[in-house]
Amino acid sequence: MTADKKAIQKVKAEFPPVALPRSVFFRARFVSGSRLRPLPLVQPQKAELVQTLRRFELFAKLPLKILREIASATTVRLYRRGEFLWRRDDKVTDIVLLDAGFVKAARRDRNGVSKTYGLYGPGDCLGLFATFAGMKHSIDAVALNEGLKAICIDAAVILKFAETSPPLSSNLHGQLTRFTEALIKKIEIISAGTMPQRLAVLMLQLIERYGVDRKDDRVHLPISFTLEQLSEIIDARLETVARVLGDWKRAGWLSIDATGCHFSHLDKIRELLVD
């Protein structure tokens, strides 16, 4: 037996192979571009879909007859983290209501670098702008959470009722305004100044819309971002984002766990924006 083989056997004896679950290779499979297995989901009955649609501002006050027809053209889908709801230049087929989870609107620049233009969460509606403009999707829509739940409605059905239902038409206008506001908020983040200020603006915007369990200067933001996601959104280096978050944690302003971000001193976060 050669010296090399003896060395290999010694290493194997000291460090025996470990059987790892397939789930640990999820990131690698995603990067390689192979197709992911869809998450299992049993489609709800029409009556349940009607109740689900009523929870959204867009459909809250519509007549039951119209809601039933819309429910007939509705499919519920689950997405894995990193999975595309659609890609840039895809044809618009559905209006998407976010029931659980968050989506980033992004597109790649000429150098292939992804840039985030908006964040959307529970209660938001996606795909309206492209639908009413009669254009293809101008951005990618990417799930930020494992198990993101989307209510997908045939866009042609929405267009049909938009012409005959004044309440729906009015609500659609409000949703289009919200889409524009998301782009404005992105501009506010990028123009906020220093990197800690940009991160503070992002967090305060998300807290304003999605924060729960508010008490004094404490609030829970039920979403956890990766360092890569945050660095892309606020246009900063990953190492710098990690350093600033570390400073916030050591100061007792922030803690992060599996349920999201817990802020203990929002007043300190706001003070970062005072020049």
From TrEMBL:
HTH crp-type domain location, by residue? 193-275
Identify the residues that the record assigns to the Cyclic nucleotide-binding domain, covering every copy: 58-146
Pfam families the record matches: cNMP_binding, HTH_Crp_2
What GO biological process, any one, is recorded here?
regulation of DNA-templated transcription
**A GO molecular-function descriptor:** DNA binding
Alphabetically sorted, this entry's keywords are:
DNA-binding, Receptor, Transcription, Transcription regulation
- Annotated PROSITE patterns: CNMP_BINDING_3, HTH_CRP_2
Q: Which SMART domains match?
A: cNMP (SM00100)
The record ties this protein, via InterPro entries, to:
cNMP-bd_dom, cNMP-bd_dom_sf, HTH_CRP, RmlC-like_jellyroll, WH-like_DNA-bd_sf, WH_DNA-bd_sf
Q: What is this protein called?
A: cAMP receptor protein
